[in-house]
Structure formats: C-alpha cells, structure tokens
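Hi all, long-time lurker, first post. I run a small reading group and we've been trying to get comfortable going from sequence to structure in the token notation. Rather than ask abstract questions, I figured I'd post a concrete chain and ask someone more experienced to write out its structure so we can walk through it together at our next meeting. Sequence below, copied exactly:
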Amino acid sequence: MSSVSSSPTLQICRTCGGGAPVDVHFCPQCTKILSLGRHGNFFAFLGVPRKLNLDPADLERRFRTLSRQFHPDYFYNASPAERVASLERSSYLNDAYRTLKQPISRIAYLLELEGVLTPADHDHGNASKQVPPALLEEVFALNEELDEVRALRESGAPPESWRPRLQRAAVPIENKRTEHEQQLRALAARWDSLAGTGTPEDRKAVLSALRDRMLERNYINNLLGTIERELNA
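-- Answer (accepted) --
Happy to help. Here is the structure in token form:
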C-alpha cells in the first residue's frame, strides 16, 4: 500500500535558495511566498491532521486566513515569480478546502492518499460496471421491477399504475444508503482513533473497509439515480 509518507519533506525557496518544510507557505529565511512546486497534501497544506472528522469552523478559519495571505492583490508589485506563486497557492487552497470541507470527498481523498482508491474507482460512470457483492439482492430485485415497469409503460399503462412501484422499489435502496452512511461515520471515527497509535494492520483493515463502503455507496447512488430517471421518463 502506497501513501504520502514517501512525499518530499523539504521545498527550496526560488528567491534565496533556502530550505523550508513542505507545509510552510513563506520562506523562513527571506519571508517570500514559496512556489507551490513539490508540495505535500491538502491536510498538510491547511495545517490539519490527516483525520476524517475535522472541525468545520476551524477548517473555514484556516481557509480564510490563507486566502488573505495568498490573495494576488498583495503581490501586485511583487516579482513575477511571487505573483505566480500566489495564484498557484490560491488555486490549490481552493481545491484543498473544497475537498476537505465535505465528509465524503474527504474520505475519498484520504483513500487516494493512502493508495487504496483511484479517482476512476469512485467515478460515478464506472460505479455501475460491477455489482458489489453486498448489493446483489437489492440489484436483482430492482432490475426485475424495472423490467416490469418499463413493460407497463411501453404498453401505454397510466403513470399511476407504475410510479408507486418505482417509489416502493427505492425504499430498500434508500435504507441501504442510510446504513452505509452510518458505517462510514463509524469507520471514520475508527480511523481517527488509530492516528499515531494503530498498527499498520489495523490501519489497512480500516482503509479497506472504507474503500468497500465508498464503492458500494457510489453504486447505491447510481441505482437511485436510475429510479429517478425512470420516474421522470
């Protein structure tokens, strides 16, 4: 399993040539803003621990503080390199905040950092390619219902004869989504409890479970999206 533990821990200031920790934004020697270049990750960039339960107010406060520090207006008369650096860091900051602000995208990002999930894995277009084993029963029942509903609709049956069936078919899948949300919260708490103390085996087990729940969650959302499209057909 790969992770960012092998990421660079030092960046070089292009202005004075001094070294700085990767999560520092301004050179400790000359105080100039550092080019983004080789950086760590969203958690380190915002100065928060690599955990899944973060304080939203603290996250927003850090975002606003850095937004002011990186704002291009402060670098209007600076060197071209500094102006570019401010734009780079502002853009990266926006991406970091947008990702870490939402619990689900935060989990997905952590799994990517830990090397157990790729962007393609949680792409909704790919989520329908393989049925997760835990959802086989629900998928089988839904496909049967969809076939019958489509046949009714094609035969000219009025909406009131098939729309309630679709709405009922959505209930167990919505219940499954609620169950998965609860599991994700429990696993997130478990991951945070292992920070700095858990064994590699414990951490790997939690990451694997999180990955499975995320893939199942994406599939569930696709199923509900299919039902919604049929309702609006």
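A couple of things your group might point at:
Strands lie at 10-12, 19-21.
The CA atoms of residues 10 and 23 lie 9 Å apart.
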